[in-house]
Amino acid sequence: MRIFPTLVYEEAADYAGRVRVLSPEVAHRIAAGEVIERPASAVKELIENSLDAGAGRVEVEIEDGGVALIRVSDDGSGMSPEDAGRAVTEHATSKIRTADDLASVVSLGFRGEALHAIGAVSSMTLTTRRCGTEDPLGARVRVFAGEVVEAATAAHPPGTTVEARDLFLNLPVRRGFLGTVRAEANAVATVVESLALSRPEVGFFLRSDGRRSLAFPAAADLRERISQVHGLSLARSLVALEDPVVWGFVSPLAVSFPTRRYLHVAVNGRVVEADSFAPAVAKAYADLLPKGRHPAAFLRLELGPGEVDVNVHPAKSAVRLRGGRSAYPLVVGTIRSALAQERE
In what order do the strands lie in the sheet with 270-272? Predict the structure, then answer.
């Protein structure tokens, strides 16, 4: 089950049969199911909200793989009581205002669906206080299965905390398709690692069932963050890519792995499924590695906002690049150039 976007080419599907307008309750559950597929999906959405708010530190806590509890706290800009009340409603966002803005989205979130979707399938509490205000009190909004049950003042440091309990409380079928507690906890950890690699300057911390499982203090640069996540030995061995459009790090020919575990890609700061660029990376290393071995590659693509379409899927599970796979030759060429210099 994918969490981060992949590059896809979707075709419209036609559905025959009787046409009905669904009730708001059913429609909201369907929409929430598209956005929040598993606990890791909710964690991803909440962390991206934190990053969009300018957080320098993000703390995540889960219980029972995220089904019993997900709590994400940040030291970002926070919200006013009025904005907190609006934030839990459908299609409420501070990221865009008009349809034209969709052509140049620079934030990670933009649909205004994450909090509403999480609140529709859980018991959710949003507590926040806006930075720079003299009022020591913030705001708390509680939502149960899509219904706002409380809006009040509450003590909270500058920033935001979102707590979701009893995930999929009204979608028992979805719960039945979840993995084991360990599998879901591992999926959450993978999300935290991936987002941490995309933002080295931000500290990321994860607790699972009361135990600290990940701790990545703010890093000076991407190489240091790779060292935190994957170890100093790998980080030191990597070869730098220094193209202004495609930059990052790849492994030298002397270092390879039996799987693609060490493949990570971000486009304009947005993590995308590494499989989207696996063919390009494989082509760059073609005939240079033993059969069955794979390189490490931590790629960053910096493209103009208008060159990337992120408004492809309700769950932001896909992105398109203008011109289709035109970025692939650039990735291949940049990697091969770096490897050639490393071999000299």
Answer: 239-242, 246-250, 297-301, 263-267, 270-272
Q: What is the pLDDT of residues 145-181, one digit of tens each?
A: 999 999 999 999 999 999 999 999 999 999 999 999 9
Q: Is the pTM of this model over 0.70?
A: yes
For the chain, the average pLDDT equals 85
Please give the full DSSP string across 198-236, using - where no structure is assigned: H-TTSEEEEEETTEEEEEE---SSHHHHHHHHH-HHHHH
Q: Where in the chain is the domain with CATH 3.30.230.10?
A: 229-343
Q: Which two tokens mark 23?
A: 């009730």
C-alpha to C-alpha distance for 74 and 10, rounded to whole angstroms = 35
Residues of the chain with CATH 3.30.565.10: 24-216
Secondary-structure class of domain 229-343 per CATH: alpha beta
Which numeric CATH code is attached to 24-216?
A: 3.30.565.10
Copy the structure tokens of residue 55.
Answer: 């957080």
